[in-house]
Amino acid sequence: MSMPFIKRFVAQETARRRELILAGAHGLVGAAAGTGLVSAFARSEPTLAWSYRDRSNPYWHAVVSGAESFLEDNGHKKSALLHLLNNGSSEKSLADIKALLSKTGGKVAIACDANDAPNCRPVVEAVQRAGGHVATVWNKPDDLHPWDFGDNWVSHMTWSDEGPAEQTARILFQAMGGKGAIVGVGGIAANNPAIERHRGVMRALQDFPGIRLLDYQPADWATQKAHQVMQGFFTRFGSKITGVFCANDSMAYGVLEALRAEGRKLPVVAYDGTPEATELVLRGELLATCFTNPHWGGGITAALAYHAAIGSFKPSAEPRAHREFYGPTILVTQRDAAGFKKKYISGTPKYDWKDFWAPGRGQIMYAAKP
């Protein structure tokens, strides 16, 4: 992989996002999509949907590919999956889900990232009122729990991002020799993973007094916006910048393109473990990334919602560790990137989609409030 890849990726992301926006304007995506998608299952089956940001992002592409694998392994065509694309809008996320609930009479199994934590409550409340089933990932308030919604809110999975983000930050600081100044490029401010990954950086900084944080700005998980944020950092700080922390891989691509344009090579770390980022780690253009196994996460979230909806198991009969749990994380550095690529990228592992909690890392734990 070479740096021109990054430029192509920025252009492709922009084009795909434009296509999705145009499609949405013409009613071609989201809950208002053609009736064929909603009726893709047999009449006795619930409609299976994934509500997420957009498929132009490699992470979300892997998520919904996992859901499609679950469908195929379960004897359905992958085209049976209804894609509710919110393009980063919490309002659209909720509106699409409400429209789908109305269209199906609540006979749905929804896998969902609510886009930000506050949006989770109205989403699960709408699903409960309609008698549907939803399994969520990533974003929810700490005081909102699936067991307070009976069987309708099946489960919530997140990833313990603070610790892995601290690890990647430490790798960055060590590569800088424990001195210098960094900038940080973060996700959507109200996103739980964005908050936790920022905390991880700040925690690592406590042990590196020789490193200064110049600024940390959100780029909303997007390549193009990260490119603009990094250009702004160069305008403000110039040669003072000696390292970059990126809260996901897609934003790292924009940062690397900005570095190329400036003719600079700086140590950069990222997060998500996408195939493209893994190649960049192998080539030494990224120091590290962190894999959250989005293929398994997307498939198992869809599987949980689907099996709860058809009555294969009763969520309210499960222990709390099965209602809220952490997904797996794997740190990827140049030392182990080749082995990681062989196992998770060159060949996708096969999963038992009824073994819901096997790769999980236990019940979600919340920080004590002061």
From TrEMBL:
<dbReference type="Pfam" id="PF13407">
    <property type="entry name" value="Peripla_BP_4"/>
</dbReference>
<keyword id="KW-0732">Signal</keyword>
<feature type="domain" description="Periplasmic binding protein">
    <location>
        <begin position="49"/>
        <end position="311"/>
    </location>
</feature>
<comment type="similarity">
    <text>Belongs to the bacterial solute-binding protein 2 family.</text>
</comment>
<protein>
    <submittedName>
        <fullName>Sugar ABC transporter substrate-binding protein</fullName>
    </submittedName>
</protein>
<dbReference type="InterPro" id="IPR025997">
    <property type="entry name" value="SBP_2_dom"/>
</dbReference>
<dbReference type="InterPro" id="IPR028082">
    <property type="entry name" value="Peripla_BP_I"/>
</dbReference>
